[in-house]
């Protein structure tokens, strides 16, 4: 800092710094200190919002530039909040295996599972001889499935997925089982008959095969579904 040309100073000597100048110097020193120990790309609390400002997700503060944010991370408020979060997560038994971003232990790290690819599968078209309903039978092979894990099934609308442009004519059957990649099957957007015997899943622990049967409701059932006084078709 330049201490010359201040009120009360002698030529060639240093004067008393103003409050604003002292604060500016302190922020600059804190910023340089933070740059030596912090990588903003790895800071979980650093966030750049849509207007170009920088936010601290831990302290809920807004900063005009990265230098201001870095100075904030070395301040009492941020350090106190870090210590509180570390203490709380330690009490909850979290973050035992991870070191904190700013030298504090207790920041939880999400476990990353290595995906081993898609399972083998087979799809067979089927038809109920009594109701004339059409359906599909899925067979998926999970030879390396994690012990104790049972595949999970979910139906997804066209607007939930992010792979293709949404189309009202289709829906998706999603099957997930660690450590395999999640499989998605594109189906017609017909209503699924969820009555017992029409829709079922089964996992064979011995052969590691997962079976899913779905039956689509007929046009008549879809049209008159829920109409009072109309009995549903019997399987």
UniProtKB/TrEMBL annotation:
<dbReference type="GO" id="GO:0071013">
    <property type="term" value="C:catalytic step 2 spliceosome"/>
</dbReference>
<dbReference type="Pfam" id="PF16835">
    <property type="entry name" value="SF3A2"/>
</dbReference>
<dbReference type="InterPro" id="IPR013087">
    <property type="entry name" value="Znf_C2H2_type"/>
</dbReference>
<keyword id="KW-0863">Zinc-finger</keyword>
<dbReference type="GO" id="GO:0003676">
    <property type="term" value="F:nucleic acid binding"/>
</dbReference>
<protein>
    <recommendedName>
        <fullName>Matrin-type domain-containing protein</fullName>
    </recommendedName>
</protein>
<dbReference type="InterPro" id="IPR003604">
    <property type="entry name" value="Matrin/U1-like-C_Znf_C2H2"/>
</dbReference>
<keyword id="KW-0508">mRNA splicing</keyword>
<comment type="similarity">
    <text>Belongs to the SF3A2 family.</text>
</comment>
<dbReference type="InterPro" id="IPR000690">
    <property type="entry name" value="Matrin/U1-C_Znf_C2H2"/>
</dbReference>
<keyword id="KW-0747">Spliceosome</keyword>
<dbReference type="GO" id="GO:0071004">
    <property type="term" value="C:U2-type prespliceosome"/>
</dbReference>
<keyword id="KW-0507">mRNA processing</keyword>
<dbReference type="Pfam" id="PF12874">
    <property type="entry name" value="zf-met"/>
</dbReference>
<feature type="region of interest" description="Disordered">
    <location>
        <begin position="1"/>
        <end position="26"/>
    </location>
</feature>
<keyword id="KW-0479">Metal-binding</keyword>
<keyword id="KW-0862">Zinc</keyword>
<dbReference type="InterPro" id="IPR031781">
    <property type="entry name" value="SF3A2_dom"/>
</dbReference>
<dbReference type="GO" id="GO:0000245">
    <property type="term" value="P:spliceosomal complex assembly"/>
</dbReference>
<dbReference type="GO" id="GO:0005686">
    <property type="term" value="C:U2 snRNP"/>
</dbReference>
<dbReference type="GO" id="GO:0008270">
    <property type="term" value="F:zinc ion binding"/>
</dbReference>
<dbReference type="InterPro" id="IPR052092">
    <property type="entry name" value="SF3A2"/>
</dbReference>
<keyword id="KW-0539">Nucleus</keyword>
<feature type="domain" description="Matrin-type">
    <location>
        <begin position="54"/>
        <end position="84"/>
    </location>
</feature>
């Amino acid at each position: 800092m330049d201490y010359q040309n201040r009120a009360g100073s002698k030529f060639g000597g240093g004067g008393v710094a103003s409050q604003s100048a002292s604060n500016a110097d302190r922020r600059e020193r804190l910023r340089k200190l933070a740059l030596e120990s912090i990588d903003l790309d790895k800071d979980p609390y650093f966030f750049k919002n849509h207007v170009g400002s920088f936010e601290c997700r831990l302290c809920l503060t807004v900063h005009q530039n990265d230098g201001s944010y870095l100075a904030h991370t070395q301040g009492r408020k941020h350090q106190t909040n870090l210590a509180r979060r570390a203490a709380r997560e330690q009490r909850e038994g979290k973050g035992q295996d991870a070191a904190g971003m700013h030298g504090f232990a207790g920041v939880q790290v999400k476990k990353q599972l290595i995906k081993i690819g898609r399972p083998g599968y087979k799809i067979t078209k089927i038809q109920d001889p009594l109701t004339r309903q059409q359906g599909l039978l899925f067979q998926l092979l999970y030879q390396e499935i994690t012990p104790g894990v049972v595949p999970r099934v979910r139906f997804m609308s066209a607007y939930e997925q992010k792979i293709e442009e949404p189309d009202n004519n289709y829906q998706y059957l999603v099957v997930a089982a660690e450590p395999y990649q999640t499989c998605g099957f594109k189906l017609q957007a017909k209503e699924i008959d969820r009555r017992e015997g029409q829709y079922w899943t089964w996992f064979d622990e011995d052969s590691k095969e997962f079976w899913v049967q779905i039956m689509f409701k007929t046009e008549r059932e879809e049209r008159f579904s829920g109409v009072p006084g109309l009995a549903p078709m019997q399987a």
